Amino acid sequence: MAHDFLPMLKKDMSEARLRITISSPRLKKSRTISMMNYLHGLTLSSENITIITKPTSEYKSSEVDMVKELLNQLALAGFTVIVRPNVLMPIFWLCRCLIEITSI
Fold first, then answer.
1. What's the pLDDT tens digit per position in 37-74?
2. Is 86:54 a contact under the CB 8 Å cutoff?
3. Structure-derived torsion over alpha carbons of residues 32, 88, 91, 39, reported in degrees to the nearest 10
4. Distance between terminal CA atoms of the chain?
5. Neighbours of 60 (CB within 10 A)
């Protein structure tokens, strides 16, 4: 069942017409880059895609530089990046549909 999650999520994202908001308490390099590349292939423009994560001060010290680089890459790619303290639950909002997920 878990193997069906990603294809269904990608299908839902490809059908989003207004906005996609991703809230992720932890950014992981390979997942973030993979998701960023996938999102660029959608018809929805990148300025209508928002990524919410916690500030770098809430990451492990060994992750701070990597997270700063990922946040910079997301912003340069045109995504709206919001840094908010205490982001605890990873979720996606797709056209008024709320789906709980693991960190990207």
1. 888 888 778 888 889 999 999 999 999 999 999 999 99
2. yes
3. -20
4. 19
5. 9
Q: Would you call 88 exposed, middle or buried from its count of C-beta atoms within 10 A (0-12, 13-18, 19+)?
A: exposed
pLDDT in tens, 61-71: 999 999 999 99
| Residue 94 tokens, joined | 């797709």
**Residues contacting 60, CB < 8 A, separation 6+:** none
The 3-class SS string of the chain reads CHHHHHHHHHHHHHHCCCCEEEECCCCCHHHHHHHHHHHHCCCCCHHHEEEEECCHHHCCCCCHHHHHHHHHHHHHCCCEEEECCCCCCCEEEECCEEEECCCC
Q: Could you give the CA distance from residue 59 to residue 41 in angstroms, rounded to a whole number?
A: 29
Q: Which residue has the tokens 């205490």?
A: 86
